[in-house]
Specification:
Length: about 160
Amino acid sequence: MLNRVILIGRLTADPELRYTHSGTAVGGFTLAVDRPRTNQHGERETDFIQIVVWQKQAEVIAQYLKKGRMAAVDGRLQTRSYENKDGQKVRVAEIVAESVRFLDSGHRDVSPRTNSAVSPKNTSPKQSTGASYGDDPFGDDPFGDDLPDLGDDMPF
């Protein structure tokens, strides 16, 4: 059996980070992913997909990813259900991330960031030539500043 999902999209808001009673970090964010085809009105529709991240990966994502940043998520689809405060059963489908890759450099004036994957097997982002989080991992980025500055003008 196979349960694997790979998505590329933009964060609709800053990631949320919280901790379980036992101290395990758990985070989440919504990824806006455009559909590949336009609808009958010629408009491209977007799906808003809930992503869940755990442990060190959740802490790194909460620190370095922000609203509007592009990310790739590799994980599995999970469904769960619970009773809400009104006693109604609610079913939820979400992606549990195994790895998240930061795909753009974000703003030059915000906190340091990385473009490396973070996964349970590799809980510290890979850095080229021993760079630390304080260094700019995009300093030698071949795209340089050609990436558009999306700022707070995101449509979601």
